[in-house]
Design brief:
Blueprint: E1 2-6, H1 15-28, E2 33-38, H2 43-47, E3 54-57, H3 59-63, E4 71-76, H4 84-89, E5 93-98, H5 102-106, H6 108-117, E6 122-130, H7 138-145, E7 151-157, H8 160-163, H9 177-193
Parallel strand pairs: 1-4, 1-5, 2-3, 2-4, 5-6, 6-7
Length: about 190
């Protein structure tokens, strides 16, 4: 089983939405997929019955090694809670979503510190909620590069279909081909690094 943990100490960066859509992509591709909602907000738990081809598993089952899946995606809380180091200890890949702004790049410091203290073998930063016709500035990319965490090529746009994806069984239940392509490219880029 490959475990992908979506990690970021700053709230509002789209961790849950990315977890949902990546899980549905892998399920659509025929993998046996599970998600773990380690965020106390519980958004994925609330919609678990609506997800097609994805099993919801508890943090306890994950930590006990009782997950029967090929791909496990873990949505984490925007704070360093007691389970986070334990979940990172079993993580194959950490995905760190960051909005492309100065304050968001500065806020990466806490997440980078947690990641550095863990044993996660591979990780990557994905720029998320990138506004249409608003290029990411070189300054922001330079700030992110200082954390010595690879910046993924895929960029995730700010689209209504992501906001609605909990109601449409992910972007693949919508007709937003650009969002579908972005999630597919992100999933393939993560898979390549696994």
């Amino acid at each position: 089983m490959k475990t992908i943990t979506i990690l970021q100490q700053k709230g509002g960066v789209g961790k849950t939405t990315l977890t949902l859509n990546l899980a549905l992509f892998f399920a659509k591709e025929g993998a046996k997929v599970a998600i773990c909602d380690a965020d106390s907000q519980g958004s994925l738990t609330d919609i678990a019955d609506m997800l097609e081809g994805v099993d919801l598993v508890s943090v306890e089952r994950v930590l006990a090694g009782q997950v029967d899946a090929q791909v496990l995606l873990i949505d984490t809380s925007p704070r360093n809670d007691i389970e986070l180091p334990k979940l990172l200890a079993i993580t194959d890949y950490a995905l760190l979503p960051v909005r492309p702004g100065y304050l968001d790049a500065l806020a990466m410091k806490a997440t980078a510190t947690i990641l550095k203290a863990s044993s996660v073998p591979k990780s990557g930063i994905v720029l998320n909620q990138v506004q249409h016709r608003n290029s990411v500035t070189r300054d922001v990319l330079d700030m992110l590069a200082k954390f010595d965490i690879p910046i993924l090529m895929t960029r995730i746009g700010q689209r209504v279909s992501y906001t609605r994806s909990a109601m449409t069984n992910g972007v693949f239940g919508s007709d937003d081909e650009k969002a579908q392509q972005e999630i597919s490219l992100l999933a393939m880029e993560i898979h390549y690094h696994l």
